[in-house]
Design brief:
Layout lengths: L7 H5 L17 E7 L12 H14 L3 E6 L3 H15 L4 E13 L2 E4 L11 H5 L1 E2 H8 L5 E9 L16 H7 L5 E5 L16 H9 L7 H15 L7 E3 L29 H6 L21 H14 L4 H13 L3 H13 L3 H13 L7 H12 L4 H13 L7 H13 L3 H13 L7 H13 L3 H13 L7 H13 L3 H15 L1
Parallel strand pairs: 1-2, 1-3, 3-6, 6-7
Antiparallel strand pairs: 3-4, 4-5, 7-8
Helix pairs in contact: 2-7, 3-5, 7-8, 10-11, 11-12, 12-13, 13-14, 14-15, 15-16, 16-17, 17-18, 18-19, 19-20, 20-21
Length: 509
């Protein structure tokens, strides 16, 4: 299974935080759409898809799901099944889609391929396939949880090459709208290939069949078990990947009373040694009484064991996984750090996902991979996490990991600026001054520098000083420029200190 990077952009629209509330047990109404396509008219036969669909349908039926099942579905039949499922999902608490078959990815969306598809030209995608967004919107009708599982082969055995869709287009917007409360589970990670099933079932289907019936298994841990099961079965060659987040609400597919461990967040809500030793100063999700510690100042000998103990005692509290990731990163144990960042994100910690993106963007402890950074930033940006929006904009500005696009960069910086990010305000000023992605206007640029400077951003203060020194966008005022540079230097700007040092030497000559 191969996921194109740009295809992820649509999927980000389905990355949502489930509504907070009480435990969602196994008593509410639940529905499922299960599809297994194997015998394609114009593509190679898929060995396990029919078995996978039938076995998953049986397992979900035993869990009380109202099943819509289709095997070897042609286009009209698949669309009809999705419509039937979507209507049922409107009155359901939980709605699940399981799809086994060919799936194509293009631009911001994906396509489920019916067995009668010919796909000889790109325009056939509109008439001969089913858009993944339509499936996600159907699952999103459920009140508590929509879960879309794509146990799909994503190679393209057809003649048509899918056309990419501009994520800013009206088509993209309309296709990505309407999804809520949806998790997406893929058979493997982006840009990786799934293993072929050698027995009755695919690795993902086998893992689901093993874990779905387990009593008292909360959905977050069910999906983790599925991931670990697949990794073990494939000798770590395949790792399922999930998009979406779980809130504090506990969701069970089986009874939460049978074998479930009742836990309380009372102790987790109190400040722990891990909070004092490894919380990030700028983390809004840290304990309210924790001051935070800069990464390079973390006492790893104390922080790593303290945070390891915290995640053991409070396995559903995301901040401890994030803080353990920081401590491990400071200790240069990068693999373990990234693992804990991923666990933190699975539990709802967006900052942990941004940390992953930053590591891949800079190559900190991992091979530098701007394309993977782009993926993580996209997911976090969809949740209006401004550092991720700024990071994404910087990638588009530089062309790292994506095609360079100044207009896209400016739009993202502007979005982050509207959310109150001082760095983004300064960057919109720089692009406005340069005429990159927006019409050049030095007066507007200076106004933006002034706004960011008032917010205390050092680089904006330096830019504003430059404007005063050179009369850019307004009056020239050398003394005011010097005052601004001194202010920026005191705020920690190395650039301002260097400029002041140079001008000081010139004054003495």
């Amino acid at each position: 299974m191969r996921l194109s990077l740009r295809s992820i952009i649509f999927l980000l629209a389905a990355t949502v935080i489930l509504l907070s509330g009480q435990t969602a047990g196994a008593e509410g109404r639940r529905v499922a759409l299960v599809v297994g396509n194997a015998n394609y008219a114009n593509a190679p036969h898929l060995a396990t898809s029919i078995n996978d669909a039938g076995d998953i349908a049986d397992a979900l039926t035993r869990l009380g799901f109202d099943i819509v099942l289709r095997r070897d579905a042609a286009a009209a039949e698949l669309r009809s099944a999705i419509e039937e499922f979507s209507l049922k999902a409107r009155t359901a608490d939980i709605a699940i889609v399981y799809y086994a078959g060919y799936s194509l990815n293009a631009g911001i969306g994906g396509y489920l391929v019916p067995i009668d598809a010919g796909l000889s030209k790109p325009s056939d995608l509109l008439t001969e396939t089913v858009a993944l967004p339509d499936v996600i919107r159907g699952a999103g009708q459920a009140h508590t949880l929509g879960l879309v599982i794509l146990d799909a082969f994503h190679g393209n055995p057809f003649s048509a090459e899918p056309e990419a869709i501009d994520p800013n287009s009206e088509t993209a917007s309309s296709r990505s709208s309407g999804a809520r409360n949806v998790l997406l589970l893929f058979a493997t990670e982006p840009r990786k290939t799934s293993e072929q099933g050698h027995g009755r079932n695919s690795p993902l289907a086998a893992a689901l069949l093993d874990n779905l019936p387990k009593p008292g298994l909360e959905i977050n841990f069910l999906l983790r078990n599925v991931r670990d099961h697949v990794r073990h079965a494939t000798h770590a060659r395949q790792t399922p990947y999930m998009y979406g987040q779980l809130s504090k609400q506990k969701i069970y597919l089986t009874s939460s009373k049978d074998g479930a461990v009742s836990t309380t967040n009372t102790e987790a809500d109190k400040i722990q040694p891990c909070d004092q030793l490894a919380a990030a100063p700028d983390d809004d999700g840290k304990h309210s009484t924790a001051a935070g510690v800069e990464l390079e100042k973390i006492a790893v000998a104390d922080a790593v064991p303290a945070c390891s103990d915290a995640v053991r005692r409070f396995p559903t509290t995301s901040r401890f996984y994030y803080q353990l990731g920081r401590a491990l990163f400071a200790a240069h144990d990068y693999d373990a750090a990234l693992t804990n960042y991923k666990k933190a994100f699975e539990l709802g910690n967006v900052r942990a996902l941004f940390a992953l993106g930053s590591a891949y963007e800079r190559g900190d402890g991992v091979s530098r991979d701007p394309a993977r950074a782009h993926l993580y930033y996209e997911i976090a940006a969809q949740q209006k996490f401004t550092p991720a929006i700024v990071g994404l904009a910087a990638l588009y500005e530089s062309g790292a990991g994506v095609k360079q696009n100044p207009a896209k960069a400016y739009a993202l910086y502007r979005h982050a600026a509207d959310l109150g990010d001082a760095r983004a305000v300064n960057k919109t000023g720089e692009l406005t001054e340069q005429g990159q992605g927006v019409a050049r206007n030095v007066r507007n640029a200076r106004a933006l520098y002034e706004k960011s400077a008032r917010m205390g951003y050092p680089e904006a203060i330096v830019n504003l000083a430059r404007c005063y020194a050179n009369g850019i966008g307004g009056r020239k005022d050398i003394p005011e420029a010097r005052k601004l540079l001194a202010r920026a230097a005191s705020a920690g700007s190395t650039q301002a200190r260097n400029i002041l040092a140079v001008t000081s030497r010139r004054d003495r000559k």
